[in-house]
Amino acid sequence: MKDNKLNLIMLGTGHGTAIKCYNTCFVLGKGEDYLLVDAGGGNQILGLLEEQDIALNQIHHMFITHAHSDHILGAVWIIRMVGQLILKNKYTDNLKIYANSDVVEKLQVLCNMVLMTKITDLFGKRIEIILLQDGDSYSILNRKVIFFDIKAKKLLQYGFEIPEEGIVFCGDEPLREEHYEKVKGCNYLFHEAFCLDSECEKFKPHEKQHSTVKDVCIMGEKLKVKNLILVHTEDSHIKKRKELYTKEGKKFFSGNLYVPDDGERILLK
User: Fold this and answer.
1) CB count in 10 Å sphere of residue 163
2) Smallest Cα–Cα separation from 91: which of 126, 129, 48, 128?
3) CATH superfamily, with its number, for domain 7-267
4) Residue 160: strand, helix, or coil
5) Residues 32 and 21: beta-carbon distance below 8 Å
6) Short-list 122, 192, 183, CA closest to 157
7) How far apart are CA 261 and CA 162, in angstroms?
8) 89: which of 51, 121, 161, 227 lies 20 to 30 Å off by Cα?
9) Sign, CA torsion 221/223/229/230
10) d(CA 43, CA 186)
11) At 3, is the pLDDT very low, low, confident or very high (cuts 50, 70, 90)?
12) Where are the domains of the chain?
């Protein structure tokens, strides 16, 4: 395990209607096995994986946080393409999809509406949908992954933690106080940061149940987070986003601050 640290590859970093970057989604893994976390809103997910030299046959786990279009629609394309590989005997093992009850219901409806029966017939066989309950844990990438209800305001949404390595991903709404203890002192916290605090009037993040860079960094400092990864942002400053968000964030956060671009890789030490 000590020599098998996870790679993080940010496939997308934007919010739901971003057009200058892809919707927030990423893979965790190394070598031949990856966990895909959300899949964005379209078939661009396939090209983004190809750009990173990640074959679909290397993805055997997919977690879908919630049923908004920018998180779930790309999953339909993953299922379609994996299904085709299975039918051609070119996909090893099974695809396991981890999701809460709202996602499971809507994903099955979507797939039944738009995919061929020979693909949907694979559900319950080679494509396993694992219905999550708050606190469920599974062994993924040889690690214990614990899924939890983030208590979102808009609709049912789950995040996850990997306690052994101190990794917490809390979805795309602000971290609730009831989850502070699981985040306190963690190595890596993935957190949405919709916009700069100076642009609150322009983007109105709080009305959308989102945070500013300042909000997240103050919270991260309070909880003594070691590494903070900001995702799910607006895209108007895409070329200077890293510079601007880092400048604002470092005023309030003393740990390592990451503002990744699409396609950026981070070794989780």
Assistant:
1) 14
2) 126
3) Ribonuclease Z/Hydroxyacylglutathione hydrolase-like (3.60.15.10)
4) strand
5) no
6) 192
7) 23
8) 51
9) negative
10) 34
11) low
12) 7-267
